[in-house]
C-alpha cells in the first residue's frame, strides 16, 4: 500500500529533519573523541575536509556551473565571507565548549538562537512582534538575568553561540544560493585565514593537517563530512516541510546536547541554571505557539 504523495513527502521531510538535527545533537559525543586536538586545529581540519567533501558532492551532482554563477553575482562573495566568519567563530566557540566541558552552556546557547532570531528580526529587519513574541523575548532576558544574579556572571559562551548563529542565519538568509554551494563558498573564503594559521604552526614544527596518528586523522576527515551532511539533510527537510514543523524539529539539537552533557558527560547542573533553562523553555513554548498560529492563519491564503 502506497502513501499519498503529500503524506509521503511530509514523512520524508521529517526523516531528513530528524537526521540533520540528530547529527548536530550528537556532535559533542563525536568531538569529545578529538579532545586531544586543539580547537583551532579542529576548526582548520573541519573547514578543509568539509570543503573537500562538498567539492566531491558538487562534482557528483554536476552542480559546479550554478555554484560558480552564484559566486559571480554582485554582493554574493562578501556576504558569504561575512557568513563564513560568523559560522567559523560559532564552530570555534562550540569546539572550545566541548573541550572545556561546557556542553550544558553550549546547549543553552542553541536554545537561545530562535529567540535571538526574533530580536534580530525586530532590530534589523524592522519586523513587528506580536504579544507572544514579546513575551518570549522577555523570558529570554529574564533567563540571562537569572544567570547573572544567581551564578554571579553572564553566560558568555551561551550568548556568543546563540548570537553568532543567529547573525549567521540573518546574513545567510539574504544570499540567494543553495545550502551546498553556499557551504563550499563559505569554507573556501575561510581558507586564507586558516592557511595563514597552518603555515604559522608549520613554522613552529606543528602540522595542523598532518601531525596526528591514523585514527585521529580519519576522525578529522570525518568531521568535514559531518559538517556538510546535516546541512544537506536540513535543505532536503525544508523543501518538504512547512516552516512551523521545521521550527519544532529545531529543538532536537540543543535537547540532545543538554541530555548528553548531563547524562553522559556528567556535567554539573546547578539548581539556579535549571531556573534559566525553565525560563528559556517557556520562552520557546511561546515562540513556537506564535509561529504555529501564524502558519495556521496564513495557510488558507
Topology of helices and strands:
Layout: H1 5-25, H2 27-32, H3 39-60, H4 64-72, H5 76-99, H6 103-123, H7 131-151, H8 156-173, H9 179-203, H10 214-240, H11 243-249, H12 252-264, H13 271-298
Helix pairs in contact: 1-10, 1-12, 3-5, 3-9, 3-10, 5-8, 5-9, 6-7, 6-8, 6-12, 6-13, 7-13, 11-13
Distance between the termini: 32 Å
Instruction: List the total number of helices.
Output: 13
Structural class based on helices, strands and sheet pairing = mainly alpha
Rough outline: globular
Count the domains.
1
Mean pLDDT value: 86
> Measured on Cα atoms, how large is the radius of gyration?
20 Å
Strand tally, please? 0
Report the biggest beta sheet as strand number plus sense, adding barrel if it closes.
Answer: none
β-strand amount: under 5%
Helix content: over 70%
Poorly predicted segments = 1-5
Pattern of helices and strands: HHHHHHHHHHHHH
Protein architecture, described:
The chain is mainly α. The protein has one domain. The chain has 13 helices and no strands. The longest helix is centred in the C-terminal third of the chain and has 28 residues. The radius of gyration is 20 Å and the shape is globular. The protein starts with a helix and ends with a helix.
Amino acid at each position: 500500500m502506497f502513501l499519498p504523495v503529500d503524506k509521503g513527502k511530509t514523512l520524508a521531510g521529517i526523516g531528513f529533519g530528524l537526521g540533520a538535527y540528530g547529527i548536530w545533537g550528537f556532535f559533542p559525543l563525536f568531538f569529545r573523541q578529538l579532545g586531544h586536538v586543539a580547537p583551532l586545529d579542529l576548526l582548520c581540519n573541519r573547514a578543509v575536509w568539509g570543503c573537500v567533501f562538498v567539492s566531491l558532492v558538487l562534482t557528483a551532482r554536476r552542480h559546479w556551473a550554478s555554484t560558480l554563477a552564484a559566486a559571480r553575482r554582485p554582493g554574493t562573495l562578501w556576504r558569504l565571507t561575512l557568513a563564513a566568519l560568523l559560522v567559523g567563530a560559532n564552530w570555534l566557540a562550540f569546539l572550545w565548549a566541548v573541550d572545556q566541558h561546557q556542553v550544558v552552556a553550549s546547549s543553552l546557547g542553541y536554545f537561545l538562537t530562535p529567540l535571538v532570531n526574533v530580536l534580530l528580526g525586530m532590530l534589523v529587519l524592522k519586523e513587528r512582534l506580536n504579544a507572544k513574541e514579546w513575551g518570549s523575548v522577555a523570558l529570554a532576558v529574564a533567563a540571562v538575568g537569572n544567570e547573572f544574579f544567581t551564578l554571579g556572571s553572564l553566560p558568555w559562551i551561551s550568548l556568543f553561540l546563540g548570537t553568532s548563529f543567529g547573525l549567521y542565519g540573518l546574513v545567510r538568509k539574504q544570499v540567494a544560493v543553495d545550502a551546498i554551494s553556499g557551504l563550499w563558498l563559505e569554507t573556501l573564503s575561510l581558507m586564507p585565514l586558516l592557511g595563514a594559521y597552518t603555515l604559522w604552526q608549520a613554522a613552529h614544527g606543528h602540522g595542523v593537517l598532518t601531525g596526528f596518528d591514523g585514527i585521529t586523522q580519519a576522525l578529522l576527515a570525518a568531521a568535514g563530512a559531518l559538517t556538510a551532511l546535516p546541512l544537506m539533510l536540513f535543505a532536503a527537510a525544508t523543501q518538504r516541510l512547512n516552516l512551523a514543523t521545521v521550527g519544532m524539529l529545531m529543538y532536537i539539537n540543543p535537547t540532545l546536547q543538554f541530555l548528553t552533557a548531563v547524562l553522559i558527560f556528567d556535567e554539573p547542573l546547578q539548581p539556579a541554571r535549571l531556573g534559566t533553562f525553565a525560563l528559556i523553555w517557556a520562552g520557546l513554548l511561546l515562540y513556537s505557539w506564535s509561529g504555529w498560529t501564524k502558519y495556521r492563519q496564513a495557510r488558507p491564503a
